[in-house]
Design brief:
CATH topology of the largest domain: Heat Shock Protein 90
Strand order of the largest sheet: 1-2-6-3-4-5
Number of helices: 13
Strand content: 15-25%
Helix content: 25-40%
CATH architecture of the largest domain: 2-Layer Sandwich
CATH superfamily of the largest domain: Histidine kinase-like ATPase, C-terminal domain
Number of domains: 3
Distance between the termini: 95 Å
Length: 537
């Protein structure tokens, strides 16, 4: 049986409408995932109202007891008709087509419930207003009143604050818990510094946050908010113009490497306002060098679109261009990180070897004090009983008194009770250890005959050469920093002991063959003593 074809001729365009307008407004008002992100909307609005060529001043005043925060600026302000449009044009931003401005969503003014406030009052006076004694005021409460917001004119003399031109936003009814958790003076200052760091770094704007705990009108002086002070080596600082196909955009980089870092991060911004605390929140940029923990700083764009909550980017063509360009500089940044890491390791080794040599010297001098079998002398010709204590210049009994008079007295020749009456050659003045340490590849140095050795002492320059190609050198690094330092320290102690032992033999104080046990003891004592002083287990 054939079915009769049904003719379909109806078609029309249906406008989008909110079934429950107040429910929709409530969802927008609670869009933000934490109070700090919601609070960011108000300073951002102030920044968009700055006068061309003039410094904008923003003050944030806190009254913890009353549960209020005031954000004040001396920008262009608004006339009455502009203020009326705010509640009647939710989602329609007058800034959307102006590239330099931050705001583009058109409902940031509704963020106050997410801050924790139940009332938002906007008082404003436009620059050059013909009516000098009148300001304009918008009052909104939460939950949203079905009758709508209140817009009214108010007399300047009835305001509890001075207002030449600009805008004052007052957020009221914030709980003490939220005030203490998010909005103390210190926390707001830190928040503004992080949120607007690239903008604060510019010369064309100076944002001042004046924050007070207690009643407004106190004596606290405004505290200037400064941009983030990054610690490390600046490796990439430039503005790059990006071709977007239908125009151009700017990418500003301000990146540092901290060689000893482990959890550093690169923040991303849009038009000077923070979007992500770490670029690694983007799956496309979650690898190296961004996840190395050693790269930190800021990347600021002026061409990416944000999601409504302003804590993420829309995935569109502009975003793909951004990701592609950032990927393009990744290899250079990886090289910079590796370069700084290598330099840092060299600095750390230099610091360690200097400390270790000082410890070896302290142990060596102590060994000389306690030794009963030998004591080195300056030239190997003078003798003294081993137990005789030497005096420093200026000490009672030394050959030199105050003022240097009297000169040095010749030491007495006495028998050494511990050596059976034999006279042993000793040093009258102890020699301080002086050895340098050099890390090198024996293979690259062309020292083919010593490739299997871990270290060598160059007696001509008192230089301890440590072979970085030896397998044990790399093995010690893999076992951790302490194991690596102990390995190097043992090599240094062994070479120092060998050098000093040879010097004593050359002076005739020790015998190369008969006193080999002394060399073994010197190595053990030097290394163990230096370990103890260096607090390495």
């Amino acid at each position: 049986m054939l079915l009769k074809e049904i003719e379909m001729s109806r078609s029309e365009r249906v406008a989008y409408e909110f079934g429950d307008q107040h429910y929709a407004l409530d969802q927008i008002a609670n869009l933000y995932k934490n109070p700090k992100l919601a609070f960011k909307e108000y300073p951002s609005n102030s920044l968009d109202n700055r006068l061309d060529g003039q410094t904008l001043h923003i003050e944030v005043l806190v009254n913890k007891e009353a549960g209020t925060i005031s954000i004040r600026d001396d920008g262009v302000g608004m006339v009455y008709d502009e203020l009326v449009k705010i509640p009647s044009n939710i989602g329609k931003s007058s800034k959307r087509e102006i590239e330099d401005l931050i705001g583009e969503k058109g409902f940031g003014i509704l963020a106050y419930p997410s801050v924790g406030a139940d009332k938002c009052t906007v008082t404003t006076k436009s620059m050059g207003s013909p009516v000098s004694h009148v300001a304009n005021r918008l009052r909104m409460t939460y939950p949203m009143e079905r009758k709508g917001a209140v817009v009214e004119e108010v007399r300047m003399k009835d305001l509890r604050f001075e207002l030449g031109h600009g805008t004052v936003v007052e957020l009221e009814g914030i709980s003490r818990k939220n005030m203490e958790k998010y909005f103390t003076v210190t926390k707001i200052k830190s928040l503004l510094s992080e949120m607007y760091s690239p903008m604060l770094r510019r010369d064309d704007i100076n944002v001042v946050a004046e924050m007070r705990v207690g009643n407004e009108g106190g004596k606290n002086q405004p505290s200037i908010v400064k941009p983030i002070d990054f610690k490390g080596d600046l490796v990439h600082s430039q503005t790059q113009e990006i071709d977007l196909g239908d125009g151009t955009g700017n990418l500003d980089f301000y990146l540092f490497v901290k060689a000893k870092g482990s959890s550093e991060k690169v923040r991303t911004y849009n038009k000077g306002v923070q979007v992500l605390q770490s670029i690694t929140e983007l799956d496309e940029l979650s690898g190296l060098p961004w996840a190395s923990g050693k790269l930190l700083g800021e990347i600021d764009t002026d061409f990416l679109e944000l999601i409504p909550s302003r804590d993420g980017y829309k995935r569109n063509e502009a975003f793909d261009i951004f990701v592609e360009y950032v990927h393009g500089i990744s290899d250079d940044l990886i090289d910079e990180i590796e370069k700084r890491r290598t330099e840092s390791q060299k600095d750390e080794l230099t610091e360690f070897t200097s400390l270790w040599m000082r410890n070896l010297n302290d142990v060596y001098q102590d060994m000389l004090n306690r030794s009963t079998g030998w004591k080195p002398s300056r030239d190997g010709k003078e003798t003294r009983r081993v137990g005789d204590q030497e005096k420093e210049p200026g000490e009672k009994g030394s050959g030199r008194g105050k003022g240097g008079s009297g000169g040095e007295k010749e030491p007495k020749k006495e028998e050494d009770e511990d050596s059976g009456g034999k006279e042993r050659k000793v040093r009258k003045t102890r020699r301080r250890l002086s050895y340098g340490t050099h890390f090198e590849s024996f293979e690259e140095a062309g020292d083919i005959g010593n490739l299997g050795k871990r270290s060598l002492l160059d007696p001509s320059f008192n230089q301890i050469r440590i072979n970085i190609d030896h397998p044990e050198f790399e093995n010690s690094k893999r076992r951790g920093e302490d194991a690596h330092y102990k390995y190097i320290g043992f090599l240094m102690g062994s070479e120092v002991a060998g050098g000093e032992f040879q010097r004593l033999c050359d002076d005739g104080v020790l015998d190369q063959v008969e006193d080999q046990h002394t060399l073994v003891g010197m190595v053990q004592d030097l290394c163990q003593g230096a370990l103890n002083l260096s607090h390495l287990d």
